[in-house]
Amino acid sequence: MVAALVAGSVSGARASQDSPVRDALAQVVAAGVPGSYAAVIDGGATWRGSAGVGDLRTGLAPDPRGRIRVASVTKSFVATVVLQLVGEGRLGLDDPIAGHLPGLLPYSEPITVRQLLGHTSGVPRDIVHWRTNEEIDTKRWERFEPTQLVRLATDGVPLLFPPGTGFSYSNTGYTVLGLLVERITGRSLAGELERRVFRPLHLRDTSFPSYQPFLPHAGAHGYERLYGEQAPLTDVTTYVWSRLWGSGNVISSPDDLNRFFGALLGGRLLPADVLAQMRDARPGALGPFGYGLGLMRVPSPCGGEDWWGHGGDVPGYNTWSLHTGDLARQVSAGMNQDLSAPVAARRNLLLTAATALCGEVPAAVAAGAEVPYLGPSLP
């Protein structure tokens, strides 16, 4: 699917937006997950739709206006706050992190703010979250402090490469960045996200819950198959996600994600020169996807400028929020199964986003192509 997007082949017939996006959502469900949902902006008009089931207990369809766990899309929010501090002159992109958080990382090599934002620091990816599928269920109440997460991920673990010489996606790096925000501002990361992003943009469905396990006004319950192929799906909606903190803790809605990225890419949150550095993407960082500073770049399969945004994975929720360069079209779409979801469902969710942004269905689908996985995983 990813290879097909880059190849640039699209179908010749252009249907109404309602039809291809709705059909694409149905194909996500047909691939083997309970439900899927999307909010699409096209020329200022918003379309919302869903397919399948959002709550297996009630049988209700997913609500595309409801709240979801957006996982690694959190990184775009956290990167925005860090870059606001850069724009205010309170922080330098090439500042060594040890100058602000001495002793936090156990490495002698200098690691910069820029390298953490762009996943070029060499810092290990993550802690070991679970050793078995069952632990995804039984360890849902575990609580972690951010400094504990950094210590567990890095103590006795060498850098993956000398800082600045490679790319390796790191949730740990974004935990460090969250702690950096707290050190520079003297306030909590949750408070700074609220003060600088959520409240000014009126993102009423967006929050950074840290230790609060509930998902109020859920657009869909999240499910995983954790106890064998014949066992029923396990509801993992209620979960303490402090283990992801600055890398994946945000709750939002498809509409709020579109509003956030519209403001960010439209220049309302960062000075132009800082936004340009955020968009300076390393080509091929994640397969065919480029990566800037907390922002993904996706080659458009239907001509025109590249797309911008981020994807996210967490047990129960898979999310893509992608946007054309001119913001004429935006889409935030998701499904309510992730780790145990069939590969075809992952491809079809990205196909849904591509359908929304192209206005038609990309024709070629490369069987077996991998979609980047950005969340916590088993060892």
Radius of gyration: 19 Å
The amount of beta strand, in percent, is 15-25%
What's the story with the biggest beta sheet? 8 strands, antiparallel
Content-based structural category = alpha+beta
**Which oligomerization state do the chains in this entry correspond to?**
single chain
Please state how the strands of the largest beta sheet are arranged side by side: 2-1-12-11-10-9-8-7
- Number of helical regions: 12
Spell the H/E element sequence. HHEEEHHHHHHEEHEHHEEEEEEH
What proportion of the residues is helical, as a percent range?
25-40%
The number of strands is 12
Compute the average pLDDT: 93
Low-confidence segments:
1-16, 364-368
Structural overview:
The chain is of the alpha+beta class. It has twelve helices and twelve strands.
Keywords:
379 residues; alpha+beta; eight-stranded antiparallel β-sheet; two-stranded antiparallel sheet; globular; disordered N terminus
